[in-house]
From TrEMBL:
<dbReference type="Pfam" id="PF01641">
    <property type="entry name" value="SelR"/>
</dbReference>
<dbReference type="GO" id="GO:0005737">
    <property type="term" value="C:cytoplasm"/>
</dbReference>
<keyword id="KW-0479">Metal-binding</keyword>
<dbReference type="InterPro" id="IPR002579">
    <property type="entry name" value="Met_Sox_Rdtase_MsrB_dom"/>
</dbReference>
<dbReference type="GO" id="GO:0030091">
    <property type="term" value="P:protein repair"/>
</dbReference>
<keyword id="KW-0560">Oxidoreductase</keyword>
<feature type="domain" description="MsrB">
    <location>
        <begin position="9"/>
        <end position="133"/>
    </location>
</feature>
<dbReference type="GO" id="GO:0006979">
    <property type="term" value="P:response to oxidative stress"/>
</dbReference>
<keyword id="KW-0862">Zinc</keyword>
<dbReference type="GO" id="GO:0046872">
    <property type="term" value="F:metal ion binding"/>
</dbReference>
<dbReference type="GO" id="GO:0033743">
    <property type="term" value="F:peptide-methionine (R)-S-oxide reductase activity"/>
</dbReference>
<dbReference type="InterPro" id="IPR011057">
    <property type="entry name" value="Mss4-like_sf"/>
</dbReference>
<dbReference type="InterPro" id="IPR028427">
    <property type="entry name" value="Met_Sox_Rdtase_MsrB"/>
</dbReference>
<protein>
    <recommendedName>
        <fullName>peptide-methionine (R)-S-oxide reductase</fullName>
        <ecNumber>1.8.4.12</ecNumber>
    </recommendedName>
</protein>
Amino acid sequence: MSYEIEKTEAEWRAQLSPEEYHVLREAGTERPFTGEYTDSKTVGVYGCRACGAELFSSETKFDSHCGWPSYYAPLAGDRVQYIEDTSLGMRRVEVRCARCGGHLGHVFEGEGYGTPTDQRYCINSVSLTLKPAE
């Protein structure tokens, strides 16, 4: 796949902390209930920590109590990329930043949350940066 922002693995390692690199470039997962945005109520826009692309709004963030920040929709459908993930012996849908290919988390459907889309974008805090509204 090609992305608007492409860097070598050495360039990504120089830019990102070891944890950021593990999650964003190696599709890792931060431990549940440890991320800085899990319980955040700050109004603003969440962007990709690797490239700065604006991905999610605090307006779509909701309390799912799953251990990671949850959103019911991205800012726009073209901001994220969807990849089938069968790595744990089940079918999941991985969510990546469409601008740089950074791993963000997964999206789930049909879990019964009272959201407009019935989707839960389960996103690693370490994949995001929050730009508070002014």
